[in-house]
Amino acid sequence: MARFCEINGISAKRAADFLYKKRAIARRSEDGVIQIAAVLNEDPHLVDTSLRPLTNAPLFDVRFRGADNTIRFCPVCARSGYQSNFHLLTCLNRCPFHGCELEKHTIVLGGGVKFIERTVAVGNLVRERCDGWPAFGKDYSIAVTDDATKILDWLVSASRAATELRRRQVWKSVIAGEDVDDDRDLFGKLRRMVPPGKRLEPFFLDRWDLWDFERCDFGIDVKDSIDALYPSIGFAGAYAFFKHLGDYKASGVGFLPNLKRARDELIGRHGSCGCHWAFVDRGWNSVWRRVSDPELVRKTEMCPFAFALSEIDEEWGVASSFRSRRRLLQDEILMTRLSRVMRDNDLIRYTRDAELSPEGDLYFSPSPLSFCEWNSESPLSRLFNIAAQWEIELMSDALNGWLDEIERGEHPAERYRPQKSIELIEADRGVSLIRWMRTI
Ligand SMILES: [Zn+2]
Ligand SMILES: [Zn+2]
Fold first, then answer.
1. Closest listed ligand to the CA of 267
2. Cα angle vertex 181, ends 421, 438, to 5°?
3. Listed residue (31, 53, 49, 46) closest to 136, CA to CA
4. Do residues 421 and 173 make contact, with C-beta atoms less than 8 angstroms apart?
C-alpha cells in the first residue's frame, strides 16, 4: 500500500479511496491478490504468501494484532522495501522469511483514520531503511521460504480448527458473566490442538500460554436429550436450573459435596478476617484495605470474602440475602414456570408434598425449587454432574485467585485469569465436555 502511494505519487487516503472504496480490490480474496500483485508489479504467489498471508486464515486476520500504535517489522525485509502481515501477528517472534527477530516501531497516532496513519508510518519506516525505495525488481526481492509456507499452512489449519470448534460449541462456561478467553488463551489452545511442530516452534513467542485439555465423551442418547431441550429451555437453561437445585439437600443433584467443599474453603479463609475491611473508593484506583479500627468500617461495605461467597451462592442456588424482595418474587415465578418445562423434559419430578394442579403442574409457591427432585436416571445426569463439579472447581480457583490479589492490594475490578475453561461441543457421535487447563 505504501509502495503504491509512492509509485503513483498520491496520498495514502487517495490510495485507500482508489483501492477499497471504488472496489478496485475484489471481495474474493484470490481476485484481490491478483490485482494487488498487478499494482505492485509482484508475483501473485509472493503476494499471497508474504504480503497478504492472512486472507487465508481469517481468524488471525482480525485477532492477534498488536496495539494500533506499534508496527512490528523485520529489519531485513524493510531493507528490501517489504512489510508483511506476518510481522503484525503478535504471536510471531521471528520473520518467516529471514528468521531474524522482529523489531518494534512506535508511531504517534494523530487521531485520523488509523489505517491511513499506519500506511504513512509504514511508508516512512521502509523509506528510511531501504535505499532504493519504492524498490522492486531483482535487487529488492524476498523469496517465499519453506518456513513461511509452513507457518502459513499452520495458521490456516489452526484458523479452521478454531472456527470448527466454535461451530460445534453447544455451551461454554461463563464465570461472573465474562468470557474468560483472551487472544493469548486462544493461541495457546490452538497450539495444543494443532501442534505446529519442532521446526516452527522457534518462530512463535514462547511466553504465550500453553494449554492442555481433558475430555469426557457422551453418546448419542445424551446428544438426543440435549436436542430435545430446544426450543423450550435449551442446554444453558436446563443446566442453570440444575445448578440452582444446589440449595436443596433432597434434590438429588450430585455436586453437593463439591459445592460444600468450595464454600467451606472460602468460609475458612474468611474465618479470622473479622470483616475489618474498608473499601477505599478512588475511582479506578479503588482498593479494599484491611483496617484495624472497626470504627472505620462502614456497615454497608461488604468484605471481599463475603462478596466471593455470595458469588458462589448466587451461581449455585443458595438463597442469597442480598436480593431484593421484588427480585426474589420474579425468581420464584420464573422458577415455577421453568420447573414445568424441566418436568416435561423428564429432568425433574415433583416431591410428594408438592401442591399440584389437576394437570400435574406445580402451583406457585415461595420456594418452588424445594419441591423439585432431580431425575438421576436422566441421560443428562452424568453430563450435568461432571460439568457442575468442573465448574465449581473453576469458580473456586477464580475466586481464590481474586482474593489472593485483593490481599496483595490489587484493584477489585482487576479480572483474575482462571487457569481453566470448560465447554461442551458436538462430536461426531454424541457430545464431548472439554476442560482446558493452562499449564504455564
Ligand atoms: Zn524478514
Ligand atoms: Zn469478612
1. 2
2. 50
3. 46
4. yes
Compute the average pLDDT of residues 158-176: 87
Give the whole-angstrom CA distance, residue 90 versus residue 51: 16
pTM, entire model: 0.82
Which ligand has the shortest distance to the CA of 141?
Answer: 1
- CA pair distance 148, 155, nearest whole angstrom: 10
Backbone angles phi, psi at 259, to 5 degrees: -65, -40
Whose atoms come closest to the Cα of 278: which ligand? 2
CB 401 within 8 A of CB 378: no
**For the chain, which residues make up each domain, given as ranges?**
2-148, 215-438
Phi, psi of 256 (to 5 degrees): -55, -45
The answer on pLDDT for 23 being more than 50 is no
Give all strands (DSSP E) within 11-152, no chain letters. 70-73, 103-106
In the reported structure, the alpha carbon of residue 272 is separated from the centroid of ligand 2 by a whole-number distance in angstroms of: 8
Ligand 2 mean position, distance from CA 330 (Å): 29
User: Ligand 1 centroid vs 94 CA: distance in angstroms?
Assistant: 8
303 CA → ligand 2 middle, Å: 5
Average pLDDT, the chain: 83
Give CA–CA dist 410/406, Å, rounded.
Answer: 5
Q: What pLDDT is stored for residue 14 in this prediction?
A: 67
